[in-house]
Design a protein that fits this description.
The protein is 0% helix and 56% strand. It is mainly β.
Length: 123
């Protein structure tokens, strides 16, 4: 079974930085990983896309994080990271890793989600 595991969440002061990482486990079952991304969900709000990165390295960001967040991936390690800087309280949310993964012997990629990691920006 494929599993995504996030790490790096925590408490940070406004203006600070934090780096989130997500590793996809299940090699032996994983054929390929297409687009990977990060989503977040604040209390009482709908989950929103934060950033995505294709297998070729093309990135996309929600407007509110452009210039502050950087998404990257390591295809050899099946990992995706989110470097966050200039954090504000509005960034407080549970951040979820997402990956479109094609299993071996399958032709279609399906979405997988991590369990979420809490990011709290507060002084």
């Amino acid at each position: 079974q494929v599993q995504l595991l996030e790490s790096g969440g925590g408490l940070v002061q406004p203006g600070g930085s934090l780096r989130l990482s997500c590793a996809a486990s299940g090699n032996g079952n994983i054929g390929s990983i297409n687009t990977m991304g990060w989503y977040r969900q604040a209390p009482g709000k709908q989950r929103e896309l934060v950033a995505t990165i294709t297998s070729g390295g093309v990135t996309n960001y929600v407007d509110s994080v452009k210039g502050r967040f950087t998404i990257s991936r390591d295809n050899a390690q099946n990992t995706v990271s989110l470097q966050m800087s200039s954090l504000s309280p509005e960034d407080t949310a549970v951040y979820y890793c997402n990956a479109a993964i094609r299993l071996k012997f399958w032709s279609t990629a399906v979405p997988y989600w991590g369990q979420g990691t809490q990011v709290t920006v507060s002084s």
